[in-house]
Amino acid sequence: MGSNGEEKKDGNDEYQDMSIVEIIDYCTNARYEEIERELEEMKSYIGGGSRVQSEVQREVNRSSWKAEALQIGCLLTKHCSILIPKISFHRMDPPEGINNLSGSGRDNNDQGNRMASSSSSTYNVQTSGSSHESEIKPFWSRTEVGMDFERERNLFVSVSVGTEAYKIKILDLAITAMNELANMAIENEPLWHPCIAGRILNCAEYIKKFGQVDSHFPVLPNAETYTNPLQTEASRETRFLAVQPVHIVELLMNNDQYSHVLSNMVSKAKVLGVLSTQAQGDYNGALQVMAVKFHASSPLVPNRKCYLARYSRRLNNNAWGVVDVSLQNLFPNPLTRYRRRPSGCLIERFRDGLYKVTWVEHCEVDNSSVPEVCRYFVTSGHAYGAKQWLSTLVRQHERLTHIRVRRDPKLQLSTGEANLLILADQMMRNFWRNLSFSRKNRWMLVSLSDAENIHKAIIRFVKEKGGRCPGPALVMAATIRIPASARRIFNFLQDENSRSKWDILSHGHVVQQTRSISNGCVPGNRVSILEVKSPEDPDRTVMTLLQESFSTSACSYVTFAPVEASSINMILNGGDSDNVPVMPSGFSILPDGLTGDEVSLVTIIFQILDSAASPMCFPAHSVYNMYKVITETAKAITAGVVDPYNMG
Fold first, then answer.
1. Straight-line distance from the first to the last Cα atom of the chain, in angstroms, rounded to the nearest whole number
2. pTM, 2 dp
3. Is the peptide bond before 190 cis (omega within 30 degrees of 0)?
4. What is the pLDDT of residues 546-584, one digit of tens each?
């Protein structure tokens, strides 16, 4: 220990007589020599063509500059005595009242439906302490540590899985995982014990029956020792659907469909390698390696990310299976604290055109960074469990079926209504994207002097195709507990007659639903156009909103966005919705996982445009107003659903 410390000290002392420029040049040259050695070793290992080698060279160069930036930053900190400050901001004088609230994405002073404009006062980033009690700091979890080299790691995995040695190992792992999934989907006690929430896995019986599915692969030593062990989460859910198995298999194996249909849980999915393909449309025996990232319905819950093998197979004439299994032992990353055990779905023929779909979720994960308000919601399996996945699949099936069964010509969707549904679908996916953490969409913890630390704010710069968001935006979110059932809260929020009771911008106004398109079997599952009318002049529309609401057995959503009235008319007349901007705000409503149906977790998200915002500068007026919108909305919802006299 002592010799190592001396060697490290001597190694650092060689920089003491160098200038900053000389240090940078020295480190860069040394790193390039190391990169060249690593590149030659990789070339000899993969034996790939020049195209693959050029990609490796390009990505390794990109990685080297990231590494250099970190190394140089450390050197500058040591030798130049640069102190890394704690990011904070001063609170300027907040506005009196909340007359300029923009929580619904609209400036209160606008006469039309224009989005909120920027504010002149700002929270200025400081490099020293502040006498005020307001500050901003990063909000992230251990599951996201070390993901700055995602592109390089993805490339390494995609190159490696192309070698025969890895193909054999991954195929062996996938076949073993499929056999395990089939057994876990069929067996009951003693493997699964019945409980109030469904079924709970008997871990002792699981180890006795299956052992560790990847125990025959060597485990490399971790670079970091964690004090928090991984917890096991396991759940199973069954539903009956009138859908051909091949359609479900294709949805899960086709990455575009998978990312789109399950976007309420899938933040990102990328196919890194296809190891086995069949004829077009035939997924029997298809095997692919993927990088996936999942998110929950609250931004307080950490994302989960892993590399996995996805394998589909026709088990017999009456059954199909699709299984995921983590490749952590083949491509170890000690900073990733999520391992996906064999999980997926088994589809069996039942009768009368029905198929029994059984979904199994099984993983090991570190939940130590989950905040207390969401702790049981996550550990009970409600956040990422089988019920969430299968209810999403069922919801999509019901949505498409409900639209297609309009055989009566009077009930068939017009081109304008179909385009409106497309716009609503884009709004929902943008909303779910805001829920997710990523390197391009980082949550920052906002602490106000009179607020609890459950309020989050992020700066989000969106440059999407089709102008979905016209500029930089601020998003603030909070997750709260409300002592009422999810169904009661959902009914209150989606009903236009009660909107003025919780929406500050609609308070004192009349809200009318001018168009409604049902897209599900559950009452309230619909896309609506709402018009907020002036109380003095009922013929004058103050604001037009596009709203989608839907409820499943696992969760509920109410999402809305202000849209120009002229844009709505253009779409309903058959115009294209691709270039219509939507900035969604809204709610996700879920059971808290602890009290059954007595208490719900409600995540409130509001979004505004702000041209003055930047990653290091949050306009004070906007932050204060958004905070007031969220707190006042939370109070109004609680009062509305707890007091029965406020429901009508």
1. 72
2. 0.76
3. yes
4. 999 999 988 999 999 999 999 999 999 999 888 898 999
pLDDT digits (tens, 9 = 90+) for 271-285: 988 888 666 668 999
- AA identity, residue 461: F
Does residue 294 contact residue 305 with C-beta atoms inside 8 Å?
A: yes
Query: For residue range 283-316, what is the model confidence (pLDDT) as tens digits?
Result: 999 999 999 999 999 888 889 988 999 999 999 9
**Residues in CB range of 606: below 8 A, 6 or more apart:** 103, 104, 105, 475, 476, 477, 585, 626, 629, 630, 633
Alpha helices in 371-485 (DSSP H): 375-379, 386-404, 415-435
- Alpha carbon distance 249, 201 (integer Å): 25
Q: Where do we find the tokens 């709970």?
A: 200
Q: Positive or negative CA dihedral for 505, 511, 515, 520?
A: positive
Strands 510-518 and 526-533: antiparallel
Q: Find tokens 């296809």 and name the residue.
A: 274
Assess contact for 582 and 563: CB atoms under 8 A: yes
What is the band of 259 on the pLDDT scale with cuts at 50, 70, 90?
very high
Amino acid symbol at 241: L
Average pLDDT value over all residues in the chain? 75
Q: Is 293 exposed, middle or buried (0-12, 13-18, 19+ CB in 10 A)?
A: buried
For 619-634, what is the mean pLDDT? 85
Q: Which amino acid is at 482?
A: I
Question: Which residues are CB-neighbours of 98 under 8 A, at least 6 positions away?
Answer: 504, 625, 628, 629, 632
What stretches of 187-280 show up as alpha helix (H) in DSSP? Answer: 203-210, 245-253, 255-261
* Cross-strand partners of 198: 195
- CA separation, residue 457 to residues 54, 363, 454 (Å): 41, 30, 10
CA distance to 68, 499, 532, per residue, from 539 (Å): 63, 19, 10
* DSSP, res 95: P
Query: In the chain, how many H helices and how many E strands?
Result: 14, 23
Q: Which helix (H) or strand (E) holds 173?
A: helix 164-186
Tokens representing 279 are 């004829």
Q: Which two tokens stand for residue 116?
A: 């909120």
